[in-house]
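lol forgot to send this yesterday, sorry. struct tokens for the thing we talked abt
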């Protein structure tokens, strides 16, 4: 009943916000103490900035087709799904307290038992420029993850993240984070979270994240950005899913919130996963610590931008029956806005932001190329199988894409990806494949 009422409220609020999208300007009460903004969602705030309320959201509808390595038999498969369908509610209370609730109707984050909350957090900003945040949110790791999914260049974030997919996802856990900027030059964050994996005593697995960014140039169209990241979790006495299963840019091989390729989708296991039980969990005591280090770089000059990230992971064995699992990955990306606009950048968060079209009739057009590379070294695999040879499993993905920012609310994207693998194939023996994915995005 509660979920039914929430869905009804959400639908009504969504309709109100979409209707508000058609209007622009500011309305002030006779008392001159409340301002209502209707451009880009619905926002109500007091003029003294002590209280505010903003309703927004995003809808991303995807369709993709893929073949070769992306399917088990190599034949063409396809998928149509909502990648994200967020209703976002945020605001300010008593000036120094902020709240954020993001609810995902697409089922692509969370599950029915956890209510699909992508974020539910409170922040204290009274110690400016330091922010203290508590609740459910994604830990801070990496430039592309820090950038909102609304404004990342490619439709899916880089494959390097997939060899250590726990580092920047909340996994339905809770945490606390301290972040802030300094000298108009630095950004940093540190967080501690309790994830939804428990040890034998029922204690949640604890995870630490740290990130520091140096950005001597940090204005839109004039960016020079360097960053370092670390994430670590204690897996001692915990059973967990140790499989490394990248989608390699084609979410539709296995997704939720719509149709995917079903049993023919090939989300292959590159490593990990030795000694799994019926629930796909590695035995308690198999591994001790899981540590990831990362680096990031970005440069932007006018409509041109380049960015790159690399990471290295070590899952340390805690039993003579197992060997350490080591993974690494990197990507490099070039992007250019044909219509001349620059990508916005925010030092607070160390991230890129939206491209806002200057021409309201034709919008903004962006093209990009990205190269992804991953490697998984798992010496627990001592016998070759039909789809996985012994030795380091590798993959690289070349992606070409175009984005049309029709206006500040609507974005259309088309990505083509070519994957090649080594030491791992699908059931048909394919070590390469092609993927084409399109998206329609509406943001309010």
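and heres what i got for the seq, position by position
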């Amino acid at each position: 009943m509660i979920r039914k009422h929430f869905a009804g409220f959400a639908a009504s609020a969504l309709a109100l916000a979409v209707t508000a999208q058609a209007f622009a300007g500011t309305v002030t009460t006779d008392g001159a103490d409340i301002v209502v903004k209707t451009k880009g969602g619905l926002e109500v705030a007091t003029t003294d900035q002590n209280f505010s309320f903003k309703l927004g959201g995003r809808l991303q509808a995807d369709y993709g087709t893929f073949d070769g390595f992306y399917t088990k038999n190599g034949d063409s498969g396809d998928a149509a799904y909502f990648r994200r369908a967020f209703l976002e509610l945020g605001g300010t209370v008593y000036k120094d307290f902020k709240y954020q609730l993001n609810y995902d109707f697409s089922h692509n984050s969370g599950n029915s038992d956890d209510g699909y909350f992508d974020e539910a957090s409170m922040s204290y900003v009274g110690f400016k420029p330091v922010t203290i945040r508590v609740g459910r949110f994604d830990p801070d790791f990496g430039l592309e993850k820090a950038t909102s999914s609304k404004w990342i260049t490619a439709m899916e974030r880089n494959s390097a993240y997939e060899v250590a997919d726990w580092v920047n996802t909340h996994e339905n856990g809770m945490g606390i984070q301290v972040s802030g900027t300094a000298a108009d030059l630095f950004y940093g964050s540190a967080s501690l979270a309790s994830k939804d994996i428990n040890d034998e005593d029922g204690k949640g697995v604890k995870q630490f994240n740290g990130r520091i960014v140096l950005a001597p140039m940090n204005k839109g169209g004039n960016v020079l950005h360097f960053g370092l990241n670390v994430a670590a979790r204690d897996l001692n006495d915990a059973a967990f899913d140790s499989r490394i299963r990248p989608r390699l840019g084609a979410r539709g091989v296995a997704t939720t919130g719509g149709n995917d390729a079903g049993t023919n989708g090939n989300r292959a296991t590159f490593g990990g996963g030795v000694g799994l039980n019926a629930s796909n969990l590695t035995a308690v005591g198999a591994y001790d610590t899981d540590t990831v280090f990362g680096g990031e770089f970005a440069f932007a000059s006018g409509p041109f931008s380049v960015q790159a990230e690399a990471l290295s992971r070590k899952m340390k064995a805690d039993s003579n029956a197992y060997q350490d699992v080591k993974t690494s990955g990197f990507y490099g990306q070039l992007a250019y806005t044909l219509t001349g606009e620059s990508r916005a950048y925010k030092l607070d968060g160390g991230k890129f932001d939206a491209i806002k079209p200057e021409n309201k009739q034709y919008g903004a057009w962006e093209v990009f190329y990205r190269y992804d590379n991953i490697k998984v070294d798992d010496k627990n695999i001592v016998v070759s199988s039909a789809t996985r040879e012994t030795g380091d499993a590798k993959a690289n993905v070349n992606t070409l894409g175009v984005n049309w920012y029709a206006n500040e609310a609507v974005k259309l994207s088309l990505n083509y990806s070519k994957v090649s693998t080594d030491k791992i194939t699908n059931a048909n023996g394919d070590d390469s494949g092609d993927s084409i994915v399109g998206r329609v995005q509406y943001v309010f």
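DSSP finds two helices and 22 strands in the chain. anyway ping me if u want another try
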